[in-house]
Amino acid sequence: MENHNLFAALRAAFPADLSACAVETDSGLCYSWQDLDQASAMVANMLASLDLPAGARIAVQVEKSVEALILYLATLRAALVYLPLNTAYQSAEMEYFIADAQPSVVVCTGANFGWISKLAFKAGTAHVFTLNEDRTGTLLERASQFPRTHGVAQATANDIAAIIYTSGTTGRSKGAMLTHGNLLSNARVLQTYWDWRTPQQGGDVLLHALPIFHVHGLFVAIHGALINGSKMLWCGKFDPKTVLRLLSRSTVFMGVPTLYVRLLNEHGLSAQAVASVRLFISGSAPLLMETFALWQERTGHTILERYGMSETVMLTSNPCRTQDGQRRGGTVGAPLPGLQLRVRGDAGQDLPVGEIGGIEVKGPSVFKGYWKMPEKTAEEFTADGFFKTGDVGHMDADGYVTIVGRSKDLIISGGYNVYPAEIEGYINALPGVAESAVVGVADADFGEVGVAVVIAKPGVVLQPAEILARLKATLANFKIPKRCVVVAELPRNAMGKVQKNVLRNQYQP
Ligand code: MLC
Ligand code: AMP
């Protein structure tokens, strides 16, 4: 029987010379293709020895490291389900994810072991391992006792490879279930569409400077390099000076817009400094025309902007090869080959070219559904099987899509999604708070940041700094509004609903 395990396809693309460097870190370490193969086999063997049920979740909250990448590969290899969690998540957030996903294994940093293991054991998790940035921890200690070979476990294209949690406009975070087939089909489409060059064609070198707990850094970047047998230059954290230095040895770079904005602040950024790069890709948040134009001016390169989401992986892309057309700033390009994309009006009618409506998609990369939420899943699909993205835009006569807004109340800050409803819930629960509204306003660095507008209960005097400090103690740092104001009342429409657009205009910098 054919094995549809994504790892099998990635492994098949490893170059013939397994002793060559596959990943070079910013601290100068080199991991060969053989290292990736053998270390992922050892961890996969260790996971297999735990006798976990089919579909068991491996929840991971660790700092970025090549060992974390190996753990991801090992989880695929063992045909278990990878569940990455942002390192910024604090105890309330982690408690929810662990209770909801009921992972069989949790991997965390040694520093967090105390509180995370408590949450995990309470939720019924059988095994908690540690993995630290410096290659220490119980995960590797245990794995070191296992063999360096492992036949790739059998998986169908419809088996779940990963669950990515995305917050929701109302209520609970939802775990998007992505299958081996979803991830592999997207990786293969992008390999051609972005013209990746195999080692025989001279090879590509990807500079990887994104976190590896979201779609962009984990799937688009890592699969892109591995399915092509391409080397990665690996940065633990995004530091513009290090990235600029390493760009001189790279051919492909992927970033959220904030990374481009920060690189533009570097005096050393010039056409000469990035002479070896053939492709700059941006996504996860809107790339401002100003950034697009400044990048062209400073480097001579036209950034390729693409659009995707956790539920669908990549959906549209500007062209890479001239035969596919021209890259256009301000648009996210055309639907990728194999993907159907349509723009629909409020009544569910197809809209003519150029008209603005809701973006709906159908194709091989669209997820299997939300974890344990069949009703929510059903709500997000149309009767004819299109997924409603919640993004609002239009398509031109050449098929280029432009995103103009979102029907979901969402702030995208530095490439991370922040749902106002979640933050408002926490603020409203603070003593003395009657009500609150969180809105996104423009920010030169993060693109968009949150502002909290709060009303106090009668007779209470609230201190904005204290509200922010309280939030900081509870929530992931990127969700904390950058500003808090206490006001007497919120603007409302005739129905009594808070007019967020009025607040947004009022607090625009
Ligand atoms: C950090 N902070 C943020 C923030 N990141 N605040 C808002 N938005 C963010 N994205 C907080 C910090 O905690 C700190 O708070 C203050 O802001 C300044 O932080 P910093 O030192 O400037 O942040 P830094 O560590 O440099 O991180 C910035 C960043 C990072 C841009 C490098 O946010 C990042 O890696 N973003 C990429 C996100 C990403 O990969 N998204 C892909 C999603 S996938 P304080 O209070 O401590 O001072 C997806 C699908 C698709 O969307 O299409 O790709
Ligand atoms: P996430 O849920 O983190 O995967 O975020 C997905 C959302 O990011 C999409 O629904 C879009 O709103 C947004 N997004 C991704 N890429 C782009 C882009 N190039 N331009 C505008 N928005 C984008």
Question: How would you describe what is shown here?
Answer:
The chain is of the alpha/beta class and 509 residues long. The chain has 3 domains: 6-18 and 30-180, ANL, N-terminal domain (Rossmann fold, 3-Layer(aba) Sandwich); 304-406, Luciferase, domain 3, CATH 2.30.38; 411-507, ANL, C-terminal domain (GMP Synthetase, Chain A, domain 3, 2-Layer Sandwich). It is 29% helix and 25% strand. It contains 15 helices and 25 strands. It has helices at residues 6-12, 33-49, 66-77, 91-101, 113-122, 138-143, 180-193, 215-226, 240-247, 257-264, 289-299, 374-380, 420-428, 464-472, 500-506; strands spanning 21-25, 30-32, 57-61, 81-84, 105-108, 127-130, 160-166, 174-179, 205-208, 231-234, 252-255, 279-282, 304-309, 313-317, 334-335, 340-344, 357-362, 369-370, 387-395, 401-406, 411-413, 416-418, 433-443, 447-456, 483-487. The protein has a 9-stranded mixed beta sheet with strand order 2-1-10-9-11-12-13-14-15, sandwiched between helices. The termini are far apart. The structure holds malonyl-coenzyme A and adenosine monophosphate. Malonyl-coenzyme A (MLC) binds next to helix 8 and strand 13. Adenosine monophosphate binds next to strand 13, strand 19 and strand 20.
